[in-house]
Amino acid sequence: MTGGPSPRAGTEQPDPGHPRTETVALPDALGRRLAQTLHAPASLPRFDDSQMDGYAVRAAETPGTLDITAPVAAGTVPEALPSGCAAPVMTGAPIPAGADAVIPVEATSTRNFADTGSTDRSSTESAAAPQRVLVPATSPGAFLRRRGSDVVHGEEVLAAGAVLTAAGVGLLAAFGLTEVDVLRRPRALVIVGGDEVLAPGRDLPPGKVYDANGSLLAGWAASRGLEVLAVRLIDDDVADFVERLRADLSDTRPELIITSGGISAGRYEVMRQGFAVMDEITFDVGTVAMQPGGPQGLGTAALPGGGEAAVICLPGNPVSTWVSCEAMLADALAEAWGLNQPQPWVPAQLAWPVQPLAEKDQLRRGTLQHTPAGIIAAPMTGTSSHLLAAAATAEALIRVPAGAQELPAGATVTVRRL
Ligand SMILES: Nc1nc2c(c(=O)[nH]1)N[C@H]1C(S)=C(S)[C@@H](COP(=O)(O)OP(=O)(O)OC[C@H]3O[C@@H](n4cnc5c(N)ncnc54)[C@H](O)[C@@H]3O)O[C@H]1N2
Ligand code: MOO
């Protein structure tokens, strides 16, 4: 089995029941994708300003001794600079008309504004403040930040679909924006369970286990850029599962359904048995040549009134579920919906010998050490898919390709940092 959810262009509207974009407040826009191309609504900087705490001068009047005018604080509008004068300007302050360069204060006879006189922004009076300053030679444009030198009004700054980084969010705020239109996150429904699986927080009768996968999948899906609509914890009652899923298809209208467990060869395989009786679901289950994460299901669910959801069924062992997400589903989401790219697979050298499986790639959990010679990958002891505690300390997946021969220490494998 290859692939993931049926690929769709990142901006396509899969469900007519939901708008393609939404408006979010700026801090919440981090990591979201822009709905429309952004053209700069203003030039940045908005005015010529000073790059340094220093003196605004006419370059042609340097070097020399100049009269000191009133200081120019950031956030004020200065008088024009008379000839023969130097205006103290603070970083970010507008440049007085007539000045064409700034000389950092430490390059002048003043050395440091902090020790010279009043902190009253409007005051020109100070017993300690010198009246004249000796400045070195400079040239026009020195230490000036020209209006529009970052971006010019009307210029394209970010393309539709671009992921907003922290710098991107800061840029929107610098333009004075408080909210932005972003592409809606694909809507995911998580279904986990089995008769033995109970929600954490309750007493645990003998033979039962707490649901690890609901939280695991919900957290992982949100971190990959999905909107998690709900986490449904079901038991092995097939009729109940079908009824609840039909209600969810109608009410929550997911674009992706991620299930965990209930798909292998047992007597009680609720997902597999439930999907089989639902006409609105096409579904196939098979095995990929990978351990953990062998059993996998893939399908689609038709939504009432139009639209469809991709159905991804992951094996129930917690490490199998998790490894399936990190090694396959992340790539499928990036390809299908343009969500964040997972870490690349990169070469590394085994820290110690490893015996591969004969016919399946094995995804060992391990730690990485970065050395001048490259990355050393140390696989953890134990390969079984119930070893969640070990997985929780892993830094990387280590792909050990199928083969008969033991791989010696130093053999090259590929690793994906988690
Ligand atoms: N005869 C065969 N048996 C099994 C095969 C096979 O090929 N033939 N494959 C094995 C492999 S590999 C895996 S992986 C599992 C996958 O089984 P299911 O996806 O059907 O998962 P379950 O049987 O429901 O559960 C497996 C295991 O995981 C625990 N589990 C399930 N859900 C949760 C949860 N939400 N939180 C915590 N733990 C969970 C469950 O209790 C079981 O221990 O099948 C093998 N068997
Ligand atoms: O593939 Mo199962 O996931 O080995 O445990």
Description:
This is Molybdopterin molybdenumtransferase. It is an enzyme of class 2 (transferase). It holds the Pfam family MoCF_biosynth. The chain has helices spanning 166-174, 213-223, 238-251, 270-276, 318-337, 388-392, and strands at residues 21-25, 38-39, 49-50, 54-57, 64-68, 85-89, 101-104, 132-135, 144-145, 156-158, 179-183, 187-193, 197-198, 209-210, 227-234, 256-260, 281-287, 290-291, 295-302, 308-314, 345-350, 361-371, 374-379, 396-400, 412-417. By secondary structure, the chain is of the alpha/beta class. Helices cover 16% and strands 29% of the residues. The protein is elongated, with a radius of gyration of 31 Å. The longest helix is centred in the C-terminal third of the chain and has 20 residues, at 318-337. A hairpin with a 5-residue loop joins strand 19 and strand 20 (308-314). Helix 3 (238-251) crosses helix 4 (270-276). It folds into four domains: 8-42 and 157-183, Molybdopterin biosynthesis moea protein, domain 2 (Alpha-Beta Complex), CATH 3.90.105.10; 47-146, Molybdopterin biosynthesis moea protein, domain 3 (Molybdopterin biosynthesis moeA protein, domain 3, Beta Complex); 187-337, MoaB/Mog-like domain (Molybdenum Cofactor Biosythetic Enzyme, Chain A); 345-417, MoeA, C-terminal, domain IV (Beta-clip, Beta Barrel), CATH 2.40.340. The two termini are 24 Å apart. The structure holds ligand LQZAQKY5 and molybdate ion. Molybdate ion binds next to loops. The site of ligand LQZAQKY5 has 26 residues, from helix 2 and helix 5.
